[in-house]
């Protein structure tokens, strides 16, 4: 509040406010929403306010990283800068970032500085803006990941309000896990060269391994998301909708740099693409890209696969895997379906118990714990009518209570306003239906393969009829899945 007051109410803050309004194109409401402020280039301001007036212990201020004693003064670490408060996803201020104002002395010091890491601020764990955007991320089931504070703020102002910013150029394991609590997809829109930056590349591979679906957006004519959001917000949104999968992006970036027609070009492409292919853990997905690369190189898929197999034991592949943080014990034990089922039950128990009485819900809930808790609730509702969370929890068998408690206390299911409840329920159910269709398709695909191996197309009429029926069902389910995925794609940026 000290920094905000100085931005809006002091002579010193006028220059900084003009820079934000005119130089960066921010609206007053946006500046206030993100709590931006200003620290004058003076050694006395911080001491007068925090120590002399508010009676803070100087040692606490130093431990927080805001200031430090020097030559009889208490120096503000961020003096002479626009201030960006750094808040965790719960809305607690954990640190600050400061940007120097443009001017003749701009190049003499770092453009951005941050308060140092403390017991509450860890750069690798923070996602800037998540405190404001987490409900939109949950609703859209995708996080737009940018690289800096102004990238996030300008994106928000342009209507892209499911955005977060990294403190750095590469996703970390902690950030991946934090994003995964609110959605299962991320679109990277970073200033850095993801394909050429090994740290950035390892970050997205970590995300893939932990179950976060990653795509990459290309801004083409703009240097960063802030530039795109200010100059062409509609084009920026279009680039996010057209984002490509991370493996396509990494492979395409190699083919763009070398001539795939020449022998030398093929060798260079192979040296860069093969390590990428070796990192794809899903063998079906890997096989798809092996075939795609072989066609573009005009060589056999067997030749590419042989190189991939050889690469699997080499340093880069093993290094990338060894540096990927393991999923938490909870993530290892529980799959996406179980997490989704628990979330819909959590939403029901906390905000809308009636939704759990619908047959469409009971048809979607399959995992043993969630199924048993839902069955207990259906019995309870017939006997009692109105739901009482304490009474229901107390009446549950002991082996179900911990799971139920986790559901009703889940932070991920907190809703910002009553209007968000049906939106969140719809998003979770939409994903559960999509997941159920995919599971049915896998099962049906195995059934069709088995029938074909038995000669179903050429043997008895009953066998041919069974195969034809299975293939027709597979076609119908595929169309349903395509329809659901198209709805998801259209909901990435624009409100539904």
UniProtKB/TrEMBL annotation:
SMART domains: TOPRIM. One of its GO terms (biological process) is DNA replication, synthesis of primer. Keywords: Coiled coil. Residues 434-487 form a coiled coil. Pfam families: DnaB_bind, DNAG_N, Toprim_2. GO terms for cellular component: cytoplasm. InterPro entries: DNA_primase_core_N_sf, DNA_primase_DnaB-bd, DNAG_N, DnaG_primase, TOPRIM_DnaG_bac, TOPRIM_dom. SUPFAM superfamilies: DNA primase core (SSF56731). Residues 141-222 form the Toprim domain. This is Toprim domain-containing protein. GO terms for molecular function: nucleotidyltransferase activity.
């Amino acid at each position: 509040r000290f920094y905000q007051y100085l931005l809006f109410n002091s002579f010193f803050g006028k220059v900084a406010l003009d820079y934000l309004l005119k130089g960066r194109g921010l609206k007053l409401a946006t500046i206030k929403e993100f709590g931006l402020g200003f620290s004058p280039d003076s050694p006395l301001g911080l001491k007068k306010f925090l120590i002399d007036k508010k009676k803070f212990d100087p040692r606490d201020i130093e431990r927080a990283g805001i200031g430090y004693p020097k030559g009889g003064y208490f120096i503000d670490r961020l003096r002479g800068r626009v201030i960006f408060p750094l808040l965790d996803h719960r809305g607690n201020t954990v640190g600050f970032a400061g940007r120097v104002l443009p001017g003749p002395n701009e190049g003499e010091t770092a453009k951005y500085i941050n308060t140092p890491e403390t017991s509450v601020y860890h750069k690798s764990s923070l996602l800037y803006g998540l405190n404001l955007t987490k409900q939109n991320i949950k609703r859209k089931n995708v996080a737009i990941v940018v690289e800096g504070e102004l990238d996030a703020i300008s994106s928000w102002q342009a209507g892209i309000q499911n955005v977060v910013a990294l403190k750095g150029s590469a996703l970390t394991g902690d950030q991946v896990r934090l994003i995964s609590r609110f959605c299962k997809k991320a679109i990277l829109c970073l200033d850095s060269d993801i394909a050429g930056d090994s740290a950035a590349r390892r970050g997205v591979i970590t995300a893939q391994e932990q179950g976060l679906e990653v795509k990459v957006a290309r801004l083409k004519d703009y240097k960063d998301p802030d530039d795109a959001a200010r100059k062409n917000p509609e084009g920026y949104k279009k680039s996010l909708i057209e984002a490509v999968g991370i493996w396509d992006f990494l492979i395409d970036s190699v083919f763009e740099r070398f001539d795939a027609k020449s022998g030398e070009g093929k060798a260079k492409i192979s040296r860069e693409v093969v390590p990428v292919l070796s990192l794809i853990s899903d063998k079906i997905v890997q096989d798809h890209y092996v075939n795609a690369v072989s066609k573009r190189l005009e060589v056999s898929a067997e030749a590419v696969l042989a190189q991939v197999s050889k690469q699997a034991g080499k340093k880069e592949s093993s290094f990338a895997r060894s540096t990927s943080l393991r999923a938490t014990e909870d993530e290892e034990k529980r799959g996406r379906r179980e997490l989704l089922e628990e979330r819909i039950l959590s939403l029901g128990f906390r905000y809308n118990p009636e939704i759990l009485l619908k047959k469409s819900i009971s048809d979607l809930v399959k995992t043993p714990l969630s199924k048993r808790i839902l069955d207990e609730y259906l019995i309870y509702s017939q006997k009692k009518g109105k739901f009482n969370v304490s009474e229901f929890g107390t009446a549950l068998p002991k082996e179900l209570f911990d799971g139920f408690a986790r559901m009703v206390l889940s932070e991920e299911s907190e809703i910002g306003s009553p209007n968000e409840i049906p939106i969140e329920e719809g998003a979770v159910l939409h994903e559960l239906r999509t997941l159920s269709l995919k599971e049915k398709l896998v099962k049906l695909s195995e059934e069709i393969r088995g029938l074909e191996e038995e000669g179903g197309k050429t043997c008895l009429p009953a066998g041919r009829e069974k195969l034809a029926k299975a293939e027709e069902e597979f076609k119908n389910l595929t169309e349903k899945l395509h329809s659901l995925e198209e709805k998801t794609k259209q909901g990435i940026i624009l409100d539904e």
